[in-house]
Amino acid sequence: MLLAIETSCDETAVTLYASEAAARLDSSKILVELISSQVDLHKPYGGVVPEIAARNHIATLPMLITKAFLQSGTTVKDVSMVAATRGPGLKGCLLVGLGMAKAIAFSRKVPLLALNHLEGHLFACEFMEGHLRPKLPMLALLVSGGHTMLVSVPKFREYKVLASTRDDAAGEAFDKIASILGLPYPGGPALSREATSGNANSFSLPVGLRENNTSFSFSGLKTAVARTVAKLGGLEGVREKGLVADLAASSERAIVEALKVKVAAALKSLRPQSFLLTGGVAANLVLREELAQVCADQDVRFSVPPFKWCTDNATMMAALAASIIKHNPNLYGSEWRAAEHPGYLGPGVAIEVGAVARWPLEEISGV
Ligand code: KG4
Ligand code: ZN
Hey, which bits of the chain come out as E strands? Predict the structure, then answer.
């Protein structure tokens, strides 16, 4: 049984998976998946406060693991492998999950996989039915609160970042524009809800770096929305004129458009087997529909996780761990050291892997 732990930001998440080395990933073997969200704790601050997040992980994680064992009728003695997020993320938060994972792996003398959170998002569809999983080579758009990147994946665990953001991430743009429009935290879901009753053509907002194939930019859009609000007499003026929904819809359209043009261009030049939309912003319905259409037009398979696996969760980390083991059945139970195989610690091996705030996909060197 694999125990997967994710604590890179503001969700504490635990998944137990009855895995078998070399076996096909099978969602019916997910024994339990739990998420404790800290959204309400950070709401008063309008964003994640790292110290509050880390302290809350400390209080929540042991309870969540205990609950996972109770709900699945298992105990810590059933754990034969541990996987945890090592980075990138908030260092204090990562340390909590990784520390717990090390303690369990060390005391039970079982292997530990210390994994990359971004790579986890790229595995978020692996527990879906076969025809919904991405096929390699694939192009992936990873859009979350911290990252916006277009990634080419020619082979298993080989990543080339084709485009990333110069300033704000797509999720950050949703969150900041929502805040300018007086919508509640977290902004992404609130803004897209508001947008459903607005007209996306009512305001003409800038689509950042439309012609540039390697960089996204969303800060200009944020400034344009702030200027428009000021011109309309501030938030009060916008509300009085009943234009909040129209501005939300127009902003959403501009963000989606900026993502769409780059995806369409990259699909055309790469001609991959699949396209994967993943990360928290992949929960956005307009984005899902528009990108599904781009893929249909170009005859490329479109994969997107169900909502629960778009935002941060431990099941995507379990999927990554199980995929690594499936590709390397001999890894399990071997005595390979972290130095030889970064991110992997064999049973009983001294625990020498640390949490990392920064860990680009291209620096992943794995098996
Ligand atoms: O992947 P995630 O849970 O955390 C990070 O790793 O960053 O992504 C969170 C981001 C937030 O910025 C949130 O506003 C955004 O995803 N988000 C959405 C929607 N649901 C979540 N953005 C737009 N539309 C949504 N429906
Ligand atoms: Zn994430």
Answer: 2-6, 11-17, 30-37, 81-87, 112-116, 138-143, 148-153, 160-165, 215-216, 274-278, 301-303, 344-345
Q: From residue 195, how far is each of 137, 210, 213, 300 by CA, in Å? A: 35, 23, 28, 28
- Name the residue of 281, 284, 304, 358 whose CB sits within 8 Å of the most ligand 1 atoms, as the mutation to test its pocket: 281
Q: 3-class DSSP state for residue 133?
A: coil
User: Over the stretch 220-249, which tens digit does the pLDDT of each residue have?
Assistant: 999 999 999 999 999 999 999 999 999 999
Residue 9 Cβ inside 6 Å of ligand 1? The answer reads: yes
List the residue whose alpha carbon is closest to atom 7 of ligand 1.
145
Indicate yes or no: pTM above 0.85.
yes
Per-residue pLDDT tens over the stretch 44-84? 988 899 999 999 999 999 999 999 999 999 999 999 899 99
Whose C-alpha lies nearest to ligand 1, atom 3?
311
Ligand 2 centroid to 89 CA: how many Å?
Answer: 9
CA distance 52 to 189: 22
Residues present in the chain in total: 367
Report the DSSP beta bridge partners of residue 113.
83, 344
